[in-house]
Amino acid sequence: MREIVFGLEDSFVSTLGAVTGIAAGADSTYIVIMSGLVIVAVEAVSMAAGSYLSNKSATEAEREVLREEGKVAATGAHTHLIRSAAVMGVFYVLGGFVPLAPYFFLPIRNAYAPSIILTAFCLFALGAWSASFSKRSPWRGGAQMAVISLSAAAIGFVIGRLVGAYYGVVPGM
Q1: What is the dihedral of CA 136, 3, 18, 93, to 10 degrees?
Q2: CA distances from 44 to 1, 53, 101, 146 (A)
Q3: Sign of dihedral through CA atoms 6, 54, 93, 40?
Q4: In the predicted model, is pLDDT for residue 152 greater than 90?
């Protein structure tokens, strides 16, 4: 569950912020889609590798503590590490397509709102779902994740507009 929530949440936020900023600054469907696909692919591999390496370090530290205490560590950790990394990568890819999808079907100016709304909805649902496992309010958990998403989109949009303006890119032309 940790890898599912982390992979989706990070992908929603990172991809939304990036494609919103790229769309605002470049005003090119080609550039948004190409950049979005590159971002999703590279970050999915990075997140999967990070999951594997961080979980491997934690597992090795646990084994060392158990060994020092004279206890035997459970076997099968390697399979668990690979499975966790794969889950992280797959859910990162799936999450990345949520904010990117509208740009495949709509012109840049028409894709902003559906991308942001769809991602905010998915983040709200993910936050509500994950909150239910920790006995927190689903509404509060969902709202927290949605607000993070909108913050990333706003930051990406502002940076994209500033850089686009600096380089003379005129949106909508």
Answers
A1: -130
A2: 17, 14, 17, 21
A3: positive
A4: no
**Amino acid (one-letter) located at 37:** L
Query: Which one-letter amino acid corresponds to residue 18?
Result: A
Contacts of 117 (CB under 8 A, 6+ apart): none
Q: What is the pLDDT of residues 77-129, one digit of tens each?
A: 677 888 988 999 999 999 999 999 999 999 998 998 999 999 999 999 999 99
Amino acid present at 66: L
Dihedral sign for Cα 135, 136, 139, 144, please: negative
Where helices occur in the chain by DSSP H, the ranges are 2-26, 29-68, 77-105, 108-133, 138-166
107-to-15, 27, 75, 121, 127 alpha-carbon distances in Å: 18, 9, 52, 21, 30
Tokens coding 159: 């940076």
- SS3 label, residue 72: coil
| Best CA proximity match to 114, nearest among 124, 125, 99, 127 | 99
Question: Token pair 């990172």 is at which residue?
Answer: 14
Q: Nearest Cα to 15, choosing from 101, 140, 81? A: 101
Take residue 66 and report the two structure tokens written for it: 């158990």
